[in-house]
Design brief:
Elements: E1 2-3, E2 7-9, E3 12-19, E4 22-31, E5 42-45, E6 49-50
Antiparallel strand pairs: 1-3, 2-3, 3-4, 4-5, 4-6
Length: 52
């Protein structure tokens, strides 16, 4: 798996990822949990979107 440079988007970053010669994009955004049981600030990633 190879990752490219993150590109700033609306409310987060779009990160190009290559998995087994398939190009995908993952959108990552800052995530602030609503409960005190979770670690404070972290990143939340959406499911990868892969092209053909």
């Amino acid at each position: 798996m190879k990752t490219g440079e993150p590109v700033a988007g609306q409310g987060g970053y779009s990160v190009p990822v290559t998995v087994a010669d398939t190009k995908c994009k993952v959108f990552v955004r800052p995530y602030t949990p609503k409960s005190d049981m979770e670690p404070p600030r972290r990143w939340k990633a959406d499911a990868a979107v892969c092209g053909k």
